[in-house]
Amino acid sequence: MSGVSLAMAPRSDPDQTTSTKAPQKPGLAQQQQRSTMGGLMSSLRVVELQLVAFIMVFSASGLVPLLDLIFPAFASAYILALSRLAFPTRSRTATSAEIFQAGRFFRFYVMMGTVVGLFLPLAYVLGGFARGDDHAVRSATPHLFLLSFQILTENIISGLSLFSSPVRALVPVLYTVRRIFVIIDWMADVWFNKDLPPNSPLKDDVWFWFGRGLAVLNLAYFSINLFGFLIPRLLPRAFERYFQETDETYAKMAEDPKHTEPVKKSQPPLDKKAD
User: Fold this and answer.
1) Where is this region: Disordered (predicted)?
2) Domain locations in the chain?
């Protein structure tokens, strides 16, 4: 949700200790790689199906404003236009490369964002349905709708080589910017448009302050994510990788004789002077 699927990469450093030993059987290595990729793809498909289900339910519920319903279509069209016109991909032979490798702290940061941004708001919406709190459901549903679309889009384009690294990095930036405004509306709703009745029971007080704290926590997390990670770290690394790939592509084209021979052959031979 925070550009994680675009940022994290599996460790691919060569193992120097195994280079001096007998080489591993290629069949076994390929089977292990296929089983790993198969499990990853199956899990991604399950996640994508769940996200599609969330999107359909949120869209049909009538709880998402028209502007937020239109935004994913605009963002998808803009991303496709950038991928074809501004930042076309330079390497189509391999799958999309991850922008940088993540450590343990970053993985913890991502896990915390998943809990804060997805699981707790989803529990808040389901709890609102159970308690009959339409105000809570209506306040948090637009955030969940946009976040579901963002995760679905990241999962789809991260597995395709049709999109360059700047285009893939712009996906979480676009959605996070929009969701910050949505979360601000959510926070204004629960802080200024909703009050506790006098002499309310303890469970109502806990539920009331849980909604307020969750809105503030989401605003804090995704603001830090946008201004502390996506803009200063993810975008520069994505453009750096893209321009490196562009330079390597042009260098290979300059060294390739297929691109230089036609230039030489196109020049007409000089006629010999008549004696």
Assistant:
1) 1-34, 253-275
2) 67-73+100-249
Are the C-beta atoms of residues 5 and 154 closer than 8 Å to each other? yes
Q: How far, in Å, CA of 180 to CA of 39, rounded?
A: 34
Q: In this structure, is the dihedral angle defined by the CA atoms of residues 108, 109, 114 and 119, taken in order, positive or negative?
A: positive
Which of 112-126, 157-171, 182-196, 225-239 bottoms out in mean pLDDT, i.e. has the lowest?
Answer: 157-171
User: pLDDT tens digits for 81-106?
Assistant: 998 998 888 765 444 556 656 678 88
| Lowest mean pLDDT across 84-98, 127-141, 144-158, 234-248 | 84-98
Separation between Cα atoms, residue 242 and residue 240, nearest integer Å: 5
Nearest in space to 214 (alpha carbons), one of 144, 149, 146: 144
CA distances in angstroms from 271 to 261, 263, 266, 267, 275, listed in the order given: 21, 19, 15, 12, 12
Q: Which residue has the tokens 């809570």?
A: 136
Q: How far apart are CA 18 and CA 48, in angstroms?
A: 38
The answer to whether the CB of 176 falls within 8 A of the CB of 226 is: yes
- Rg (alpha carbons) of the chain, rounded to whole number: 25
| Helical segments of the chain, H only | 4-7, 26-61, 66-81, 104-114, 120-131, 134-158, 165-192, 202-225, 235-255, 257-265
Side-chain-side CA neighbours of 10 within 13 Å: the count stands at 7
